[in-house]
Amino acid sequence: MQHKCITIRQAGVEDNEHLSTVGRETFFDSFAADNHPADMAAYLEKSFSPDIQAAELAEPSSVFLIAEAEAMTVGYARLVEASAPHFVKARKPIHLARLYARKQWIGNGVGAALMTACMDEATRRQCDGIWLGVWGRNARAIGFYRKWGFLQRGTQSFVLGNDRQTDLILWRPLKSAAAIPP
Predict the structure, then answer these.
(1) What is the phi/psi pair of residue 164, to 5°?
(2) If you average pLDDT over residues 12-32, what whole number do you get?
(3) Averaged over 122-129, what is the pLDDT?
(4) Helix, strand, or coil here: 9?
(5) Which residues contact 108 (CB under 8 A, 6 or more apart)?
(6) Which residue in 32, 86, 104, 153 has its CB near the most CB atoms, within 10 A?
(7) Chain-wide mean pLDDT for the chain?
């Protein structure tokens, strides 16, 4: 069921504690069942403290987009203007570093609303495409990204605590401001 009242806003530096909480929650809900608790705890501590979120929010190359519905945050995304891995050929790429919906909102249009906003932001920044890393065992996310026209270009390592995992690197060129899934 698609939820019709999802709004997207750009996060500000004052959202650091909120993004820390939502980031920890959504990452934990997405990956805890398939990973060792110590590895999860180490990654969450390293990646989602309020200070780390404040630093990421302050980066000029970075933008956080927050999805809201029913007076609550239901998901978020982070884009970073950054070079892509060597096997992604792009003039001005943007990295979709995070895109998460709260567990109870998965399947209600949060991902689509965030992806549309990400495509619009990338186009506004005159980027020629979006790249991302997705865990090779995350079939639901891989299917979502493929529906949006992302294709695999390679792989790279992702370290979760002490566990080295393999991410698929996906790429989608941007040809226009329209962000409509194929």
Answers:
(1) -85, 120
(2) 96
(3) 95
(4) strand
(5) 1, 2, 3, 6, 69, 74, 101
(6) 153
(7) 93
Query: What average pLDDT score do residues 61-72 get?
Result: 96
Residues 6+ positions from 91 with CB-CB distance below 8 Å: 128
pLDDT tens-digit map of 25-41 = 999 999 999 999 999 99
Compute the distance between CA of residue 39 and CA of residue 97 in angstroms, rounded to an integer: 20
* Amino acid, single-letter form, for residue 136: G
pLDDT digits (tens, 9 = 90+) for 52-64: 999 999 999 999 9
Radius of gyration of the chain (CA): 16
Q: Are strands 93-101 and 129-135 parallel, antiparallel or unpaired?
A: parallel
DSSP of 137-177? T-HHHHHHHHHTT-EEEEEEEEEETTEEEEEEEEEEE--SS
| Gap between the Cα atoms of 98 and 53, Å rounded | 13
Residue-wise pLDDT for 161-180, tens only, equals: 999 999 999 999 997 544 44
- Angstrom distance (rounded) from CA 7 to CA 67: 6
Strand partners, 168: 134, 155
d(CA 117, CA 111): 10
Q: Which of 107, 161, 158, 111 is nearest to 137 (CA)?
A: 158
- Structure-token match 């689509």, residue found: 112
Q: What is the average pLDDT across 84-96?
A: 93
